[in-house]
Inverse folding.
């Protein structure tokens, strides 16, 4: 089974293809927020490099958030449209789960984080048990200071993602992996999509935001002001 993985939920952009359990190719960019411009050209280049066409893809996995509102919409829309056109399934994958999956060798608590603005992060806590990724705490929006407090409840916690970039003090509470393990990889999305597809969890992907967008917050604030 050839699976295409797509992640556009953060500052990085990643595309990959696995065939059964073999990674055939992966492109990852962590440079500028230009997902709308780069997604389709990179996908075309990836498939051509592997001597594949979209019709050769059997399943699509896509990160559905939480993360960048715009990025999530770009990836989910492309995945759903492609799946519909090819009459294949698409599996939505938590961006934080996909991030945690990238450090499969680690047996402690894994804190996957993405910037949620205003000194807050999207956070999910995971661990590997017998090679399977287990969720210890479901994704949520937390203050950076609360994130540090949470770390004290776990043995050898590791931090992934944006939190350490937003507050250097975070590194005093967590272990930190290599730089290339701090971001989401499409290969992780592929492997998780394969797992969930076997469990019957497939269909169209729906975005997961966890919080209101800044535009929604400002709109509601203006409406409240006008009502006074």
């Amino acid at each position: 089974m050839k699976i295409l993985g797509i992640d556009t939920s953060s500052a990085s952009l990643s595309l990959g293809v696995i065939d059964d359990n073999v990674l055939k190719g992966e492109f990852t960019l962590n440079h500028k927020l230009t997902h709308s411009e780069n997604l389709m050209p990179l996908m075309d280049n990836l498939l051509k490099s592997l001597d594949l066409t979209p019709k050769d893809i059997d399943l699509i996995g896509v990160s559905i958030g939480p993360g960048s509102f715009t990025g999530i919409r770009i990836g989910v829309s492309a995945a759903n449209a492609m799946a519909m056109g090819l009459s294949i399934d698409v599996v939505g994958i938590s961006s934080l789960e996909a991030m945690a999956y990238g450090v499969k060798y680690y047996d402690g608590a894994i804190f996957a984080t993405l910037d949620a603005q205003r000194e807050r992060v999207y956070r999910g806590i995971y661990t590997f048990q017998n090679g399977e990724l287990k969720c210890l705490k479901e994704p949520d929006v937390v203050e950076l200071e609360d994130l540090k407090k949470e770390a004290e409840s776990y043995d050898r916690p590791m931090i992934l993602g944006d939190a350490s970039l937003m507050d250097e003090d975070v590194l005093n509470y967590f272990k930190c992996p290599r730089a290339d393990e701090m971001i989401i990889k499409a290969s992780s999305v592929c492997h998780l999509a394969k797992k969930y597809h076997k469990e019957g969890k497939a269909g169209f992907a729906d975005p997961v935001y966890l919080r209101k967008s800044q535009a929604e917050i400002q709109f509601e604030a203006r409406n409240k002001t006008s009502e006074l």
Strands lie at 2-7, 13-19, 22-29, 59-65, 89-94, 110-117, 120-129, 132-143, 158-161. The domain at 2-96+183-218 is CATH 3.30.420.40 (Nucleotidyltransferase; domain 5). The first strand starts at residue 2 and ends at 7.
